[in-house]
Amino acid sequence: MSWTHRDEEGRGRRRKKKEKGRIGKKKRKRGRKKKGKKGKKRKKRKKGKKRKERKKGKKGKKRKKGKKRKKGKRKNVEECQNLVVVEEEEVVEEEEEEVVEEEEEEVVEEEEEEEVEEEEEEEEEVEEVEEEEEVQPSGQRTKMSRAADRLKHLIGHLDRPSVDIRTSPAASLASTLPLNFRYSLDNSLLTPEQRRFYEENGFLLIKNLVSHEDIDRFRQEFERICRREVDVPGLVVMRDVAIAKSEFVSDQRAVSKLQDFQEDPELFRFCALPQVLEYVECFTGPNIMAMHTMLINKPPDAGKKTSRHPMHQDLHYFPFRPAHRIVCAWTAMETVNRQNGCLVVLPGTHTGTLKEHDYPEWEGGVNKMYHGVRDFDPAHPRVHLEMQKGDTVFFHPLLIHGSGMNQTKGFRKAISCHYAAAECYYIDVKGTTQENIEKEVKELAHKRYNLDHISFQDTWAFRGRLVKGDRISL
Ligand SMILES: CCCCCC(=O)SCCNC(=O)CCNC(=O)[C@H](O)C(C)(C)COP(=O)(O)OP(=O)(O)OC[C@H]1O[C@@H](n2cnc3c(N)ncnc32)[C@H](O)[C@@H]1OP(=O)(O)O
Ligand SMILES: O=C(O)CCC(=O)C(=O)O
């Protein structure tokens, strides 16, 4: 637990450096802002005009949609009666239609995004915006076409055949890369399309990345742990709240999640798989820490819907930054689909800020520390990440995601690791929305290990393991 001392110094140095940088940045900003504002007014006028045009267009579209929807509904009732029940019960709670209606929602959403973007631009990102405008002069790619593009990418991305889609970017394509990527680093692994996809959506699904052989080995180890044949230091074994008080059965039926398996050499192999780290490096850079590990064994729902995982942003749990140098790798250990509670993501939400989280008010109870995001746009398009064994999704810690209820009789298994650049630094969460989780974690550490003065940051420094490069600040 030595982060405090060493890092306080480091933090001091960094803070000074940052302040210096900020002053410089502010000066530069001031100089540019004048120029920027005029441009922005022009931009706003244009946007107003565009908005009017869109509204006009939307009326016509709505009428058309009404017809389409009726047809679609009939099909739903005839063919997918079960689905109606599924929809009602899932965390996802929205109607199938809402997902299909992305086009319409995207327009509204894009408008909202534009406004938020504008605000952010005013405050912080003047420099970046200017860069963006240089490489993407208005008119070259409108917001509308970006929304449509995004949808196209999303669908194309999810429909890919089950093969490894790794390719090297062709030299000729490199020139089409925008220069303002902020969520991924220059690398020779991701294609321009994959990179752009992550930038815009906050996740990237790679098919068939982890071998079935490895997954079977992880499964066997999981079963050994459940049978208590191995004792793993630091491991947290969770039971679903609905069965936590029922009679203990010492096999996987009782276990809903293994957390912090960094001391289990077999399970921890997952975190160091070279083909996984190759991707991770595109987001973290070459010095990589495995910060958080989980094997999630989503149980068949006991009837109280407690197998759901509320919509949340993982950054809520992390007292380290910057967010865009943190990434999660989540690998399906078997087929995951809407029936057994696949991941559900709100594409693009990684571009927002960390929101307030707390326990959702669910009648059947909520699992310990399963905080949900307080306010998010329920109309935001959702993507259900249906995956096959070995498929891996990489996602940003601000991406709002969750998972639905497991309505099957089987367990739904996935293994995951949150990675961070070793250059990330700890932050003090006092006075922030993360205070509630800090309090809970500290209480748990006290209860479990009788540790009184452990800090939130300590609990992370203690769990983190270097998997590549040098351990720097974390
Ligand atoms: C970081 C990336 C994103 C992460 C997102 C997440 O996953 S967030 C989720 C992360 N979750 C966690 O870190 C939680 C870690 N979980 C734990 O530490 C533990 O499973 C636990 C505290 C909940 C239970 O610990 P114990 O091993 O002491 O369990 P024990 O069986 O003795 O139960 C102690 C008390 O906790 C209750 N309990 C047990 N499991 C529970 C659960 N899942 N949810 C709520 N409460 C639970 C019991 O009913 C009992 O209450 P009574 O005392 O009233 O009888
Ligand atoms: O695997 C799941 O069901 C959800 C996992 C998740 O969202 C998380 O642990 O952050």
Hey, roughly how much beta strand do the residues contain?
A: 5-15%
Helix and strand content put the structural class at: alpha+beta
User: What best-fitting shape do the alpha-carbon axes yield?
Assistant: globular
Main beta sheet: strand number and arrangement? 8 strands, antiparallel
Order of helices and strands: HHHHHHHHEHEEHHEEEEEEEEEEEEHHE
Overall radius of gyration: 23 Å
Which consecutive residue ranges, at least 5 long each, have pLDDT under 50?
1-175
State the distance separating the first and last CA atoms.
11 Å
Number of DSSP strands? 16
Ligand identities: hexanoyl-coenzyme A, 2-oxoglutaric acid
Enzyme class: oxidoreductase
Pathway: Lipid metabolism; fatty acid metabolism
GO molecular function: L-ascorbic acid binding; metal ion binding; phytanoyl-CoA dioxygenase activity
Family: Belongs to the PhyH family.
